[in-house]
Amino acid sequence: SGTIAIAEALPVMTGPNASGTEIRGETAMDVVVGPDVTLDGGGLGFEGLVIGISTSNCVIRGLRVTGFTSGIVIRGGNLFPPGNNTIGGHALNERNIATGNTDGVLLVGDQQATLVINTHSVQNPGNGLRIGNLATSLFVGDAGAFGYNVFSQNDQNGILIEGSGNDAIQAFVIQDNLIGLDRDGLGPSPN
Fold this sequence. Notes:
Largest sheet: 7 strands, parallel
Number of strands: 18
Strand content: 25-35%
Mean pLDDT: 88
Low-confidence stretches: none
Structural class: mainly beta
Radius of gyration: 15 Å
Oligomer: single chain
Helix content: under 10%
């Protein structure tokens, strides 16, 4: 447990050699404060954890990510889309918290079966979740245990969906999420 201060941009997980990478911080999580392991970018102006083109079957879970331009990023490409990547997990200690980033989570470009679950993107100066141009095949939330995401107390939008015309977003599902509510879904916590 503890905080890992990140002084320079982390390498992008990209290409077949990075496929299957798992970045996991699960511990006996405090159910009130969340993950015990924090990655802190210190507001130095770079992205946090980035999964790039041609990278599949990666997992990011059990972390608090703060102080980046975008805390968790999956960046796809038309010819070599990443696939079957998962942010979060169904167990309580697999929750991610993205807070204090410009955008908590950024998904952009062609992707195959990206799943975002049990991720709390809160108190970011920008958006909780930003889905950029050409994003495809996204699943944000599901009906399983802890499958919902929380997008609350962000200065701009809980979820921002960009793209139109040839840059339109296609084939995505957003379901069973708490947007503008507290993590228990019992009270307002607006964006």
